[in-house]
């Protein structure tokens, strides 16, 4: 099977007829200028050593080298062999809190921004596993099913925001239950849930939900973002003005991160609790070390073809033609001087 590694370069082949046309136009203009200067018999007497075929020879060499260079840039490849690879990993859901409390700016630039950036880093670190993303407030939705399309998963994370779920509040138990339903039955004991939240829980049943999930073969990890203490939740209004999330009475509402709840959830879920600080990469690596301890399952066998490159088949003759063209020009100049 033949393919080109960089097929877009093949569009440069359109330059070949353009260059040929330009040369013919130049040659006609040159002939017309010489005819105006003197007739051809007189020109032969004025320049007896002129080689009329030399420009054509040099042009043909250049014209032949150009498509060869283009094909070499595109890098033609031939399939060497077909290989099969057995992929192993776990099913993993990342549950991202998008409740209004994540708008608090007690960590910069905000809890939401910090959580999104970390989640993207975590997805890169956990590549090789089936990864899904769940967004939750008081309800939860699987925004990205379990997949190996990590670019899609990261695009879902990059746009995660409270406006995506109109019902607000935080129900961590609902997040755990919804994540459980996303796993296949065959993945029991090969699955994990990572909850990224500020820990506010308006229902209070998340610990028992984590325990039940763990008994069914799910490990629950939690990552806390935010600080304890009252923090305001800024919001951008439709008219462009800035305001704060407000209580029913009209005054600004406040939020306080609850890391103790997240620690209890992780403990009941058989996992570990982590605090999201400024070093997202190290934290992602620490979580990867935890996830790697989970027994892997075998996923589908993936077949792929390996290819060998043969650009040099075209590059070598192209360079050779150019060297010949340059040597002809040098030889002609040398003979004219001598």
Automatic annotation (TrEMBL):
Gene3D superfamilies: von Willebrand factor, type A domain
Domain VWFA: 91-291
Membrane-crossing residue ranges in chain numbering: 6-27, 59-78, 310-330
Keyword RNA-binding: no
Entry keyword set: Cell membrane, Membrane, Transmembrane, Transmembrane helix
InterPro entries hit by this protein: Aerotolerance_reg_N, UPF0353/GerABKA_families, VWF_A, vWFA_dom_sf
PANTHER family to which the protein is assigned, alphabetical: LEUCINE ZIPPER PROTEIN 4, SPORE GERMINATION PROTEIN
Full protein name: Ca-activated chloride channel family protein
Species of origin: Neolewinella aquimaris
Lineage of producing organism: Bacteria, Pseudomonadati, Bacteroidota, Saprospiria, Saprospirales
